[in-house]
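Quick review question:
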């Protein structure tokens, strides 16, 4: 290519690269407060909704003007908007940023915004504007794993598996992580079926283990819940991908074996106690109740409460 042409080619490539980095459309003047033909983007365009604590939520996905905006113009507008919200006494700003508008994260961070949480297609950044240290609540703190202790009262046998992906092959109850919006008992029943082929129904909640800095929870806290399930199918057809072995074992053998985890051993002893003395000694049963304000329902787990105590009005 002749040197002159090469020079103009380089300029075009550099200009295109600059646009790509800034995320601006072809009509934008980089670094300006908007674009040459459209009106400048100002603080008033960052419209937000007020929440009951006095914070402002701005959802970038709902602002059409952002499509034609570069990050520098966004930063100017956000800085002016934050100044305005601060002077009005707002306590916090929440920025909801769709993943495809992530070019606005860095300018917001340079003004003091931090990540609050992220979902698969968006992130939420927050900035505390109130007096003193931030009082904004954090996001999710735990992952929830649920196992099913499937116990057949007719034979005294319990369903156990050995995990294929573990270094030590210990007997444990089948189980796995809860899905968003899934009830604890439903997770136990689903995981038991997926891993062993056994169909069962929820009876009670037996134990909860809380462990912090859990390696399997990406360094967050892990809540591991064990449920008592009643089987209604008995032929094992276990998942070769996750399990090495699966069998119905005498509960008394599981209590005795050393080849198990401390939590499985403890819950096996708890089950044996319930089997001998009555499951009401160990069961936290579940009841569905209406939430007061939201119109939703929730599940409450506790030791069985006699009916006359449920309906009593005072010191009856
Ligand atoms: N004390 C005990 O007896 C044990 C308790 N647990 C608890 O059980 C719960 C989790 O159960 P799991 O059976 O582990 O979960 P799970 O049954 O939901 O999923 C396990 C499967 O997910 C996949 N997987 C998980 N992490 C992966 C990664 N980083 N990359 C690729 N694939 C991955 C693998 O295919 C693995 O076989 C946790 O709450 C944990 O604390 C887990 C093992 C033993
Ligand atoms: Mg599992």
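Suggested answer, residue by residue:
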């Amino acid at each position: 290519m002749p040197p002159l042409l090469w020079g103009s080619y380089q300029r075009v490539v550099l200009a295109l690269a600059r646009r790509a980095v800034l995320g601006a459309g072809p009509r934008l003047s980089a670094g300006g407060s908007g674009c040459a033909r459209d009106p400048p983007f100002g603080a008033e365009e960052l419209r937000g909704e007020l929440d009951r604590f006095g914070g402002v939520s701005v959802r970038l996905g709902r602002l059409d003007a952002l499509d034609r905006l570069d990050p520098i113009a966004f930063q100017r507008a956000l800085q002016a908007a934050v100044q305005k919200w601060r002077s009005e006494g707002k306590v916090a700003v929440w920025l909801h940023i769709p993943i495809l508008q992530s070019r606005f994260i860095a300018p917001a961070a340079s003004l003091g915004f931090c990540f609050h949480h992220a979902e698969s297609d968006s992130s939420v950044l927050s900035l505390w504007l109130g007096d003193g240290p931030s009082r904004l609540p954090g996001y999710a703190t735990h992952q929830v794993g649920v196992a099913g202790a499937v116990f057949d009262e007719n034979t005294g046998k319990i369903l156990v598996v050995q995990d294929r992906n573990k270094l030590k092959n210990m007997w444990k109850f089948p189980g796995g992580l809860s899905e968003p919006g899934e009830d604890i008992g439903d997770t136990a029943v689903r995981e038991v079926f997926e891993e062993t082929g056994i169909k069962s129904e929820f009876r009670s909640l037996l134990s909860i283990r809380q462990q912090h800095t859990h390696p399997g929870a990406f360094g967050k806290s892990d809540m591991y819940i064990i449920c008592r399930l009643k089987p209604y199918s008995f032929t094992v057809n276990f998942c070769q991908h996750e399990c090495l072995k699966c069998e119905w074992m005498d509960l008394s053998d599981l209590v005795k074996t050393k080849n198990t985890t401390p939590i499985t051993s403890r819950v096996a002893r708890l089950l044996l106690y319930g089997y001998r003395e009555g499951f009401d000694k160990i069961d936290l049963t579940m009841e569905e109740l209406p939430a007061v304000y939201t119109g939703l329902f929730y599940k409450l787990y506790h030791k069985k409460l006699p009916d006359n105590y449920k309906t009593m009005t005072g010191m009856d």
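Why it works: Residues 1-36 have pLDDT under 50 and may be disordered. The radius of gyration is 29 Å.
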